[in-house]
Amino acid sequence: MTSAALSPARDRAIRARLSAADPDLAALVARIGPCGLRVEADRSPYEALVNAIAHQQLHGRAALAILGRLVALAGGSFPTPEALLALSEADLRGCGLSGTKIRAIQGVAQARLDGLVPSRQDAASMTDEDLIARLTALRGVGRWTVEMLLIFSLGRPDVMPVDDFGVREGWRAIKRLDTQPRPAALAAIARDWSPHRSAAAWYLWRAAEEAKATAGQYVR
Predict the structure, then answer these.
(1) Which of 104, 131, 152 is the last residue of a domain?
(2) Fewest beta carbons within 10 Å, which of 23, 107, 109, 155?
(3) Is 141 helix (H, G, I), strand (E, B) or coil?
(4) What is the CATH number of the domain that holds 212?
(5) CA 33 – CA 80 distance, rounded (Å)
């Protein structure tokens, strides 16, 4: 899988824009340094959706283990929609997938064969909201799942996943708030970060990680 980093020019533009938008965000950007957001440049929307479904409500390592078993079951490469649909439910459960997730990824595979899930080439001509509207019609695919596809697979630069716990926790941490902002409130705040809201989300995830690590220092 080819992972593409941001160009130096884009990184500079991102940091300048976010730093100008808010002093606490500026401090976070200065502390973290260059934006490490990377895009899986050759991952198809179909594969991205299956990956995202596998990750739902699981720790990242657990989801990667499930996906690794799925790839092994398919002969060492990510299963095509046809190959995935040919696997039995017992095989998929053996990978660690729940019944709900099995039905969801089978639905994604069938939707790819039916043309509802677009290729990367077709997705390039669609807006973020068009893709969200189309793909959230699928079983088990919510707005957050499509937003992760937009950011990490299609490289869309201006996506703010306000329902994401880590993003809201990151904002709570840098603002030293007692509670996380509501999604609608964070969406309003994030308008000032356009057209670099995907990068802003990446920085807020780092802030959430910092807050968790700091809290852990006091847990004995």
Answers:
(1) 152
(2) 23
(3) coil
(4) 1.10.1670.40
(5) 38
4: helix, coil or strand? Answer: strand
Q: Comparing C-alpha atoms, which of 51, 46, 45, 94 is closest to residue 69?
A: 94
pLDDT at position 20: 97
Active site residue 164: yes
Neighbours of 188 (CB within 10 A): 12
Q: Where are the alpha helices (DSSP H) in the chain?
A: 8-21, 23-32, 45-55, 60-73, 81-86, 89-94, 99-114, 120-123, 128-135, 143-152, 165-175, 183-190, 197-216
Are residues 79 and 95 located together in one domain of the fold?
yes
CA distances for 8 relative to 15, 26, 123, 151, angstroms: 11, 18, 26, 18
Q: Which of 22, 24, 122, 164 is catalytic?
A: 164
Model pLDDT for residues 84-129, shown as the tens digit of each residue = 999 999 999 999 999 999 999 999 999 999 999 999 999 999 999 9
Tokens of 186: 């964070």
Q: Are residues 138 and 53 in the same domain?
A: yes
* Judgement on whether residues 147 and 54 belong to the same structural domain of the protein: yes
Cα–Cα distance, 152 to 38 (Å, whole number): 7
Domain ranges, residue 14: 3-40+159-216
Report the domain count for the chain: 2
3-state secondary structure (DSSP) of residue 5: strand
> Which pLDDT value is given to residue 56?
83
Do 69 and 147 belong to one domain?
yes
Residues 6+ positions from 69 with CB-CB distance below 8 Å: 94, 95, 96
Which residue has better confidence, 42 or 28? Answer: 28
